[in-house]
From TrEMBL:
Keywords from the UniProt entry: Metal-binding, Zinc, Zinc-finger
Gene Ontology MF, one: DNA binding
InterPro entries given in the database record: Znf_BED
The name this protein goes by in its record: BED-type domain-containing protein
High-level lineage: Eukaryota, Sar, Stramenopiles, Oomycota, Peronosporomycetes
Organism, as annotated: Phytophthora cactorum
Length: 70
């Protein structure tokens, strides 16, 4: 099952203010008041591999690759 646009955008964008998001890769700012279509279109156009990488990271058991010390 593919990830939702919301989940992908939560990883690859930072919410600057309500409805305004900044791309983590290129720092471009986009408005997205109700949905995530603008953000997903940006990823597909400028960062085509990032969407796949976000899906892979969320599916891994240790998505943040944390090293735990005993």
């Amino acid at each position: 099952m593919p990830l939702s646009n919301r989940a992908i955008c939560a990883i690859l964008f930072q919410e600057e203010t309500p409805g305004k998001f900044v791309c983590s890769s290129c720092s471009r700012t986009y408005r997205s008041a109700q949905g995530f279509t603008n953000l997903i279109n940006h990823l597909r156009r400028f960062h085509p591999s990032n969407e796949e990488e976000a899906e892979t990271a969320l599916r891994e058991t240790n998505a943040l690759r944390l090293h735990i010390v005993d």
